[in-house]
Amino acid sequence: MKPLYEQHRVRYPPFEAARWYPEALPIAKQQHKIGDYPTVKEAMMAASERPPAFTLGKEDGWFIERSYVYGEETIEVQRDTPHLEDGPYVRLVERQRRGWYLIPNPIHNILRQFINGVVVVLLVCLFYLFISPVLLFLNLPVYGLDTVRWGLLDYPQLAVVVVPLIFAPLVIRIMANLLELRRQNRFLKRNLQTPVIQFEKDSTANESLKIAVSFPEWVDSWNHVDAFLRVGVLPPSRETLFQTLGRESGSQPPPGLSTELPHHWEVGLDDGTAGGEDAPMELKEVRGGLYLRPMRVMQQGEAQRWHEGEVLSIAPPEPAWPGSVHTDLLRIHWELVLRIDRQRGGALLWVQPLKVAHAAEAGTLTALPLHDGRSELDIT
User: Fold this and answer.
1) HSE-CB of 250 using CA atoms within 13 angstroms
2) Which helix (H) or strand (E) holds 48?
3) Distance (Å, rounded) from C-alpha 204 to C-alpha 268?
4) 30: which strand partners?
5) What whole-number distance in Å separates Cα of residue 62 and Cα of residue 27?
6) Theoretical Cys-Cys bridge with 225: which of 98, 107, 110, 306, CB 3.0 to 4.6 Å?
């Protein structure tokens, strides 16, 4: 008799994953015992009644995996029919990935890139001031070393030019955040009616989704509507990560996780690595916010233009992904997104979470499509 385990392993990308080396971060691992079986055949029969195994990514990078281990051996199970995995949506989906959402003003991303350039200019100027005595000693021409008197103090001419470049985008971004708050208030007062979506059949990961969409309320400033499917990996439970990595709650976080911070005024909505930088300022009255947080691993299918009275056939993302999974460590999330192009105020999104069945044949996805994690860089 040997034990059969359902094994979950994940190395989820933290916020701004491009700044991290995946192989340097720990792998969270969790096992659930299914039972004891005398032969591999019986263990495979028991595993065939469970949700299918899958692997996304590579073990030396970001990856998420579910497998079945019989004794010391990983077993593979062949399936002939789709499998819809039971289990409720995690709270993160209910709070942050359902309903109406706004697209942040692109000026936030533009100013962030501008600040990065200004920092480089500042470092170059400081280095230039540092080596200026050497340049003078070598009788080489130097510029900008004269001072400018403001009040009782003298300032280098270079500082007079560079310092305003640093503070200007910060001031502009504060003003942009205030405008975002005003835009959110205006949208909430509008109290827009939700679209009506009718599904012709249950969703399967490798099949097109056929839906009929109607809008009880159509605004004159709307141009057109595009619909597409999006799938990705949500952050694992922070509490479970601490347990699997042998850390006590409230202790120093493991590599890749930050100190726990309040997140949108409700505990447990993500793993706590964003630190308040994932979206512009939001109204506290709205649980989860009015800006859609991008999944750090996500991919979307081809968009289809909506026409009134027609049935939409929306293709899933390629290559094929597993269906919906909502456990403490593994969280593969599917959603239908209606993107409404407007004449002013930026695009408007309606997000509908989906429960999608696993395909009979598991797909292979070795290169995970990573995302920065900021809502202003959403791929929509």
Assistant:
1) 0
2) helix 40-48
3) 29
4) 8
5) 9
6) 306
C-alpha closest to that of 334 among 230, 227, 234: 230
Domain 91-104+192-361+369-377 annotated CATH 2.60.40: yes
d(CA 340, CA 348): 5
Where in the chain are the domains? 2-75, 91-104+192-361+369-377, 109-185
Which spans in 85-221 are helix H?
Answer: 91-96, 107-137, 157-190
Rounded-to-integer distance, Cα 208 and Cα 210, Å = 6
**Tokens 């959403």 sit at which residue?**
378
DSSP 198-243: EESS-EETTS-EEEEEE-SS--TTEEEEEEEEEEEEPPPPHHHHHH
Q: CB–CB of 265/279 below 8 Å? A: no
Residues in the chain: 380
Query: For every one of its 380 residues, what pLDDT tens digit does the chain have, with 9 covering 90 and above?
Result: 899 999 999 999 988 888 889 999 999 999 999 999 999 999 999 998 899 999 999 999 999 999 999 988 999 888 888 889 887 777 778 878 899 999 998 888 888 888 888 888 888 888 888 898 898 888 888 877 777 887 787 877 777 778 888 888 889 989 999 999 999 999 999 889 999 999 988 889 989 999 999 999 999 999 999 999 999 999 888 888 888 988 887 788 888 887 766 554 455 565 666 555 778 888 877 777 888 888 999 999 999 999 999 999 999 998 889 999 999 899 999 999 999 999 988 899 999 999 999 998 777 788 899 988 888 876 55
Instruction: Tell me the CA end-to-end span of the chain in Å, nearest whole number.
Output: 52
Q: What is the pTM of this model?
A: 0.88
Q: What's the CA dihedral at 238, 242, 245, 248 to 10 degrees?
A: 170
Let me know: does 322 contact 205? Beta carbons within 8 Å: yes
d(CA 368, CA 295): 12
Euclidean distance between CA atoms 257 and 13, whole angstroms: 10
